[in-house]
Amino acid sequence: MEKTANRRTFAIISHPDAGKTTLTEKLLLLGGSIRSAGTVKGKKSGKFATSDWMEIEKQRGISVTSSVMQLNYNGVHINILDTPGHEDFSEDTYRTLTAVDTAVMVIDSVKGIEAQTLKLFKVCRMRGIPILTFINKLDREGREPLDLLTEIEETLEMETYPMNWPVGMGKTLRGVYSRADETIESFQEGDEGDERQTFQIDDPEAPLTDADREALDEDIMLIDEAGNDFDREKVQKGKMTPVFFGSALANFGVQSFLDHFVDLALSPQPRRSTSGEISPDDDRFSGFIFKIQANMNPAHRDRIAFLRVCSGTFERGIDIELSRTGKRMKLNQSQQFFASDRDTVEKAYPGDIIGLYDTGTFQVGDTLVTGNDSFHYEEMPQFPPEQFAKVTAKHALKHKQFHKGMDQLVQEGTIQLYRTPYFDDYIVGAVGELQFQVFEYRMKNEYKVDIEFQPYSHEIARWVTGGTITDKMTDQRRMLVHDHKDRPVILFENEFVLTMFQQKFPEIELSSGWGML
Ligand code: GDP
């Protein structure tokens, strides 16, 4: 199907400040066709970029969300799924990564691979999705290009293939050399214009000194000989990453990145389900919900469920079955998200993301499908929280709202919920502290319940995937609980307690997350 072949859906993984927002803005500018680029405001103007709107939400404490942007480039329809920058919300990012076919890894050339990049990279690798690397801030004195490539290869255990190569760096940056076309995109400091000059490498007009040429020749010889051969199949399986050097801020190397991106990024891929692989060309409309966001308007309790279209064509008013419950319904309240405002969607195709108004029907991980043979897409992976606390309502009389709020917020994936056997205590788990704060705020504001946390010292959660847990195996330091789907989980106080447990009870199989086996 042409619509599918011409779609690309991706997210950027990076450590805060590497330049994700800046690169997104520049890509949107190049795409041009969807909202006018002016709607994406740079931070310099004192306004937030659109992709930062959840940052504002966070400050207001309402919710923390991902937004979706689209651009059209040379006839290719590109969906960018934005992810929260703050690491405390990486669970959101993890889930968003289940809805993309490709990831772009942005690395700061001064800093190399940072903690959050590594964490998110691992999620991409687990899913085997292609990763394109953009090494940013070439206009600064960064690390040696070869050094950065070696770091990627060693830390991420992935082959690299530099698509272009910098000539100089920081103050002496002259341009980047494209290996495919043997051209130089020249760089002039302070020039943020859209028009970049490109020269054939042997063009005497190219703004390179003899020394530049010599250094470039040497580098190219080295990477040609010692580097990997380009292998498209490896790229598409996530085993090799094409690397691009550039500067998002100076809008340098961004367009050629986008040209290659369109070529190398995967179009919407088949997805595993309980009925086998579902091809995007399957006639039945189907998709799954990867994210639920509380509405921007705190006065209303309704939410927006983000659905990734996986097969068929979505049309407004379409009849679907929610496969978890078997309930049938018409989807007519659909909205598609643009950078700054919302339009009603009439049609959407595999790879697209639509937002559905929700009054509590949907859960993260739900599959929606037309026709009579419904199926489920693979379960949404559940990631191991790192902080836990027992939670109670301050006023016992509020228990009804307390349960309601807990239910809804757990379905939205705001926080993970565990219950203890016997006492049935509520234990909440989060990847980061801010997640607790948002949870507390929303319980108070939306459900009018003041809650109390009693923090636990446990740091590690492991799902029990094999063997039977007996009473003697657990105690306060290795506590048995059940997740919201009633699966057994053990909370360990620390690595040491976990290791001891594994040595003592080797028959028990443990996994660090559900769906991550
Ligand atoms: P994010 O946190 O990854 O979204 O990063 P931003 O896009 O907000 O960028 C973080 C900071 O780095 C901002 O001050 C940007 O202006 C700056 N920045 C982004 N790209 C470049 C670049 O190519 N060169 C330089 N010198 N600064 C950059």
TrEMBL record:
<dbReference type="InterPro" id="IPR031157">
    <property type="entry name" value="G_TR_CS"/>
</dbReference>
<keyword id="KW-0547">Nucleotide-binding</keyword>
<dbReference type="InterPro" id="IPR032090">
    <property type="entry name" value="RF3_C"/>
</dbReference>
<dbReference type="GO" id="GO:0003924">
    <property type="term" value="F:GTPase activity"/>
</dbReference>
<dbReference type="Pfam" id="PF16658">
    <property type="entry name" value="RF3_C"/>
</dbReference>
<dbReference type="GO" id="GO:0005829">
    <property type="term" value="C:cytosol"/>
</dbReference>
<dbReference type="Pfam" id="PF22042">
    <property type="entry name" value="EF-G_D2"/>
</dbReference>
<dbReference type="Pfam" id="PF00009">
    <property type="entry name" value="GTP_EFTU"/>
</dbReference>
<comment type="similarity">
    <text>Belongs to the TRAFAC class translation factor GTPase superfamily. Classic translation factor GTPase family. PrfC subfamily.</text>
</comment>
<keyword id="KW-0963">Cytoplasm</keyword>
<feature type="binding site">
    <location>
        <begin position="82"/>
        <end position="86"/>
    </location>
    <ligand>
        <name>GTP</name>
    </ligand>
</feature>
<keyword id="KW-0342">GTP-binding</keyword>
<dbReference type="InterPro" id="IPR035647">
    <property type="entry name" value="EFG_III/V"/>
</dbReference>
<dbReference type="InterPro" id="IPR004548">
    <property type="entry name" value="PrfC"/>
</dbReference>
<dbReference type="InterPro" id="IPR041732">
    <property type="entry name" value="RF3_GTP-bd"/>
</dbReference>
<dbReference type="InterPro" id="IPR038467">
    <property type="entry name" value="RF3_dom_3_sf"/>
</dbReference>
<keyword id="KW-0648">Protein biosynthesis</keyword>
<feature type="binding site">
    <location>
        <begin position="136"/>
        <end position="139"/>
    </location>
    <ligand>
        <name>GTP</name>
    </ligand>
</feature>
<dbReference type="GO" id="GO:0005525">
    <property type="term" value="F:GTP binding"/>
</dbReference>
<protein>
    <recommendedName>
        <fullName>Peptide chain release factor 3</fullName>
    </recommendedName>
</protein>
<comment type="function">
    <text>Increases the formation of ribosomal termination complexes and stimulates activities of RF-1 and RF-2. It binds guanine nucleotides and has strong preference for UGA stop codons. It may interact directly with the ribosome. The stimulation of RF-1 and RF-2 is significantly reduced by GTP and GDP, but not by GMP.</text>
</comment>
<dbReference type="InterPro" id="IPR027417">
    <property type="entry name" value="P-loop_NTPase"/>
</dbReference>
<dbReference type="GO" id="GO:0016149">
    <property type="term" value="F:translation release factor activity, codon specific"/>
</dbReference>
<dbReference type="InterPro" id="IPR053905">
    <property type="entry name" value="EF-G-like_DII"/>
</dbReference>
<dbReference type="InterPro" id="IPR005225">
    <property type="entry name" value="Small_GTP-bd"/>
</dbReference>
<dbReference type="GO" id="GO:0016150">
    <property type="term" value="F:translation release factor activity, codon nonspecific"/>
</dbReference>
<dbReference type="InterPro" id="IPR000795">
    <property type="entry name" value="T_Tr_GTP-bd_dom"/>
</dbReference>
<feature type="domain" description="Tr-type G">
    <location>
        <begin position="5"/>
        <end position="269"/>
    </location>
</feature>
<dbReference type="GO" id="GO:0006449">
    <property type="term" value="P:regulation of translational termination"/>
</dbReference>
<feature type="binding site">
    <location>
        <begin position="14"/>
        <end position="21"/>
    </location>
    <ligand>
        <name>GTP</name>
    </ligand>
</feature>
<dbReference type="InterPro" id="IPR009000">
    <property type="entry name" value="Transl_B-barrel_sf"/>
</dbReference>
